[in-house]
Amino acid sequence: MKQFFDTLKNIFSIEDLRKRIFLTLGLIFIYRLGCFVVLPGVDATKISSGGASGIFQIFDLFAGGAFTKASVFALGIMPYISTSIVMQLLTLAVPYFQKLQKEGESGRKKITQYTRYGTVAVTAFQGFAYVKFLYSQNIVSPEISTTLFSLSTMIILITGSVFVMWLGEQIQERGLGNGTSLIIMANIISRLPASFWAEAKGRAVAGGSGILMFVLEMVVLAFVIIATIMLIQAIRKVPLSYAKQMSGGNNAYTQRRGFLPLKVNIAGVMPIIFAQAFLFIPGTIAQMFPDSSASGFLRQLTDFTSLPYNIIMFLMVVLFTYFYTALIMNPVQMADDLKRNNGFIPGVKPGANTAEYIDTVLSRITLPGSIFLGFIAIMPSFANVLGVNSQFAYFFGGTSLLILVSVVLDTMQQINSHLLSRHYDGLTKSGAKIRGRNVATSDY
Fold it and tell me: Is the CATH code 3.40.50.10330 the one for domain 15-176?
């Protein structure tokens, strides 16, 4: 305990780190205040009777409740994330964007600008669907014309999402951690106390058996969190050796050894975000065309407890894990870099054989990682079927749990870097070895 308080004292004794922490907390506080500002034209007295269902509950979770509160930040950071995902796919498939990515800083600035423009377009599309959602909840004042309310609401939603995007960029540049990830984490945490209390109160009504079930739920949740941390931290060490070099003036030769760390879950939370981004589309279409003959099936894909949703989600997570791993890991380039630095894998010839070996290892460790990630993605539905409150069930897996764990690990890693660079002890005895998974926007 004394070491913990000493570490806190060291953190706040570093002026730059202290300013970054306070700036980050201040910007997040401003964002959370905006989540309670109701859209003009919405009857605030009727908001409590409205609510999201199915996959829109997940959207509301990421928006910190702003979605069901009809807030000016109702769409939050999600349009920016969706656009960033599309831009990353374009850099893989379109030669023009591939060229921009290779141009360095100037190219990245152009891609960022395109992402901002795309965010406005995606927000306008989702804003139109959100207006339909508000009318379906009967919370819009009948005294305002439909055209006026629709146009003003879409403009406000676009402005709100752009402002949230700006907050994330300010946290990224001047604060601590990745702004987009911290905003999502703040939204998720904001829903945790109410969900936890609702589950505890519901179990307490059942008496002794209910309390026992609640304790069992907490134990299972702890194991799920531990398993998620193990998945994020797990690596496969590929041994490396470097050619012998002369050292000193005594003509002695030394051979350096090391290892190539390949993460079991290289893709991180991205496959689940990809899958959910695609599954948001059916719900948006069903909301826009409620009388369509296909709306029944589309709505089934928005129910996280339905069988079609879970099958499609699991398969998409597995496929996207392989896709994203192939996107960010290039065995040929890794083999060339090793050869250029006079490095090699013992027993494997440099060049094509090394690339093939690395590709084989990646495929083998990605399979169990993708399957486990797929089970984490659909675990909330199992928790809900077993009687866990639908809101609290989201914390038993899925994107929410992975984002929480990943952002906490990444933030701890950044704080450790500040402490160790000034010769302080880290947050843990092996603080320098914390491997966080940054769910940054640049990863999207």
Answer: no
